[in-house]
Amino acid sequence: MFTIANKSRIQPKLTIGQPNDRYEQEADQVADQVMKMSTSQIPSLQLKCAKCEEEELQMKPLSKTIEPIIQKQEEEPITRQGNRDANQQMALSQLCNRTFTTSEEAQRQSIYEGFIRGLTGVNSSVERVIKISMCRFSLRQLSKMSRAGLRIWTHGSVPSVFEGVVQINSRGGSASYVRGIRTIFLRETINTAWLTHEMAHAWDHIRIIPRRNLVRLENLNSRRRRRLILNPGNYLSETSRRQNIDRIGARRPTRMTFDRMFQNYRRRVPRRELAFSQGSRTGYSMTSSQEFYAEGYTVFQGSFIGQQAKLYNYAIELYNFLNNEANREQMPTPNLNAVIQEARQLPRARPI
Ligand SMILES: [Zn+2]
Fold first, then answer.
1. Ligand 1 center to residue 6 CA distance, Å?
2. Which class for 163: exposed (0-12), middle (13-18), buried (19 or more C-beta within 10 A)?
3. Residue 30 C-alpha to ligand 1 middle, in angstroms?
4. How far, in Å, is the centroid of ligand 1 from the Cα of 345?
5. How many CB atoms lie within 10 A of CB 22?
6. Domain end: 204, 219, 234, which one?
């Protein structure tokens, strides 16, 4: 839980969706923007992820340094570590298994350094997890996030620029994106899937803001900074904006809101275990439109074809949206034939 320390009266902004919508109300519950006045008249920002709270139960006590246990279920094979000089940069194209130009390699490295600015205790495992998660985003996406000032931090403190403005007064989850301060908080246990999920939230948050309007919070004067912290704006996935969805093979694009995609998905999934999921968080993609998007992004850019098949089978609109987005960003996409093949093995979607 994060608290805005502010003696003046702040109007909490509750802007997520229609109050009568059941799913949107669920979204309200997990959104970091939800503020409530505490007894001491201090509004608090709740952490982004409900799952984080679930996971919290399994978490070890809070630690000030990052000592991640790289999860066994991590998608990426742990690459051989032996022959790397500790002072040498980890080659990004190697971690991403893609070829980057020298210029892109350098830009990604400098974005990485920006993401961890001020953070101490980053060992090579943490570096690897962050860099591999960054592989799931294009240079354009990353540089937009960088321009917006995205940073990665650890639970237990806040970046110095937010000290006295925002403070942690309760524990969060394994990883969470706090949109008010555009910060992803990590705990000691992280993996690339979780971090990709949080970065997808960060992308969802800033993607529709024109590049020229993006500015790091630390570059604003304290009044404007505070205003932005308290009014961080919506995730695209929770707006009522219609998205262009090219149905694969269809001639005309469909326009649909994320909420509609999400509701269709909830109706189609025959059983909760069949919800697409990046790991052990069964059903988490069914909790809100933002989690639907972030989880979908992670699955789509991940390497579990079984999950991609669920995404395809029960959330075709999101699959198509992500496919278009990946094409636009010149990012890799899953092998569609293999995904369709796999989807045939799944129980049929319920009619909507
Ligand atoms: Zn989330």
1. 27
2. exposed
3. 8
4. 28
5. 10
6. 234
The reported pLDDT for the residue numbered 39 is 26
Q: For residues 205 and 254, state if they share a domain.
A: no
Crossing angle for the helix pair 305-314 and 258-268, nearest 10 degrees? 100
Strand 151-154 versus strand 183-186 pairing type: parallel
Q: Is residue 270 assigned to a domain?
A: yes
Expressed in angstroms and rounded, the spacing between residue 187 Cα and the centre of ligand 1 is 15
In this prediction, residue 318 carries a pLDDT of 96
User: Is 203 within the bounds of a domain?
Assistant: yes
Q: Are residues 133 and 99 in the same domain?
A: yes
Please tell me whether residues 175 and 302 are part of one structural domain.
no
Query: Do residues 46 and 32 lie in contact, with contact meaning Cβ atoms separated by under 8 Å?
Result: yes
Q: What is the pLDDT of residue 172?
A: 56
Cβ-in-10-Å burial (0-12, 13-18, 19+) of 221 comes to exposed
User: Hunting for tokens 């809070």 — which residue is that?
Assistant: 62
Q: Is residue 34 located within the same domain as residue 155?
A: yes
Does one domain contain both 14 and 52? yes
Q: Which residues of the chain have pLDDT under 50?
A: 1-87
Q: How far is the CA of 178 from the centre of ligand 1 (A)?
A: 10
Give the end-to-end CA distance of the chain in Å, rounded to a whole number.
38
β-strand pairing of 2-4 with 166-168: antiparallel
Identity of residue 191? N
Query: What's the 277 CA to ligand 1 centre distance in angstroms?
Result: 12
- State the complex-level ipTM: 0.99
For residue 143, give the H/E element and its range: helix 139-147
Q: Is residue 20 part of a domain?
A: yes
Please identify which residue in the block is written with the tokens 């262009």.
244
335 & 227 share domain: no
**Is 350 within the bounds of a domain?**
no
Res 244: pLDDT: 87
- Tell me the two tokens of residue 252: 């005309």
Distance 88 CA to ligand 1 centre (A): 33
CA of 10 to the centre of ligand 1 (A): 26
Q: How many A from CA of 346 to the centre of ligand 1?
A: 25
Q: Which domain holds residue 113?
A: 2-75+90-234
Q: Which of 305, 291, 306, 294 is nearest to 333 (CA)?
A: 305
